[in-house]
Structure formats: C-alpha cells, structure tokens
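Category: protein sequence paired with discrete backbone structure
Discipline: computational structural biology
Format: plain text, a pair of labelled lines
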Amino acid sequence: MSRLRLLSVILLAIALIALSIAAYHGVTAYFAAVPPLMEEEEDPGEPVIGEPIREEPFAPAVGLYTGRGSWDPDLEAMRNFLEEYELSSIDIDQETLNSADLNDLCDILVFVGGYSSEYLHYVGNHGNIRTFVKNGGSFVGFCAGAYYASATMVWGGQLHDYPLKLFPGEAVGPLNIGYGSLATIDLNRDIPFNQNFDEAIGMRYFDGPCFTGLEGSAVEVLARYRTNGEAAVIAFALGQGRVLLSGPHPELGYAPADDRLDTEGGGDAQWNWLYEALRWLSSPDGV
C-alpha cells in the first residue's frame, strides 16, 4: 500500500472516531437535559370514610309510680305511649318507692295525673325521690304529679305546703280553662326540639297547674298557656338529675262530647311532642 493510501485510511479512521465521540456526547447531553420520569405513585385505592357520628340511642328505663293517688287511665296512656316508642317500663308501688334504691330501678320516674293530696299523704319517703333525682335520675310529673313536686300547691287561692319540693316555686290551679278542654299551648321557640312543631299546639287540660315564682331561677319554660301567658311546662336541673313538670296532659286524649278518655294516642294527645321532650330532657344539651 502506498504511503498516500495509508494516510487516507488513517485520516478516515480518525474522522470516524471523532464522529463517534461527538455523537456519544450529543446523546449524553440530550438525556441529561430531559428531566427524569416521575416515579409512578401508588394507587391510594378507595378513600377511607369514617364511621358517621350517631346519636346516642334513647333507651331509658322508665318507672311508673302506681301507688295511691295515681289515675289508672293516665297510667294506661303512659304504658301505651312507652310501648309505642319501644321504651321499657316498670311499675313502682308505694313499698318499692319508699325503700328501694330508685337509681338502680329506672332512669326516669313518672308521676301521672291523679290526686296530689294522696301523693302527699301516702308516699312515706319523699326524701327517697329527692335522692333519686340528685343522684342523676329524672322526675316527670303531669298535673297532680306536678302539684306534688312543687314546694307550694295553691288550689283555689289556698296555699298548701308540700314536702317533696323539687320545684321551689308555686303550682297554681285550677285555671279558668275548663276541665277536659283543649288548652292552647304556646311553645318556647328557644327550646331546640320545639322548633320541630307548630308555634302553638293543643293539650288536654284536667285542672292542672301553672307555675309561678320562676324569677331569678334556672328553670326553663318549655311552654305557656295561651289563656294567661303563665308557664305550663317547665324543666330544670337538680343535683345531677333533671325534672320536667307539666300542668296539661300531652300523654292523654279526651273527647268531651262523649266524655271519653283516649289512652291510645288519639283525641289530641301529643305523643310526638312528649317523646321529643323526654329525649331533650335526657340529652347532654337538655337542662
């Protein structure tokens, strides 16, 4: 091979090597300029949904006082009401009321309508009821039960001192409404559960009280009589417990034309309102 041809081969080889080096650096520079691919994120899967906040179940044990003074039709109405709303109940007679630890027996103690004078004379241990409430129980009194729970019963202008004294004021009656009449009751809209009902509802009236002497107290007025503006239903805390007193009868219906009581939720009974009142009384947001 001539020297000229050999030189040409060498120059060609050098050129090829130079091109290879240039190509290598060009490709390297290209990939260096391209950002790296993001690593693929793991699929988070379905979102985790927490358990919904549920209201605490309302399942109190209700004790019905069945001793002297209680009115049988009203007891029947309350039993039917409790059965309708699937609330458990037990009957509590005089002996049990006077001697048992009531907090072991029930969460709510109910005194229905009837005869407050017999409650006064035949309940031997009024202090046992006060202990029940102060230790966390709830007392509910309708009509005669509300008179009995008040410090002073005023009947026809005559004052009578009562020993239970859950409510320190006066229970005053009878009112100028008419026995068995449908009383118009104005609901206090500031009480949360009342907002679920009309501003005024009807409740049957059987000579129950209004409540006075509330000034400066922590008593909540749930409803007032339209006829005189006085408190018809009140509630308050006492110790660790609570008290609800009602002059009219949300639990009982009545047909005046037939002189017939309705104990099954008809005849203008206000069972829905009563159920919500008991729920509110027993809730952390109650009195």
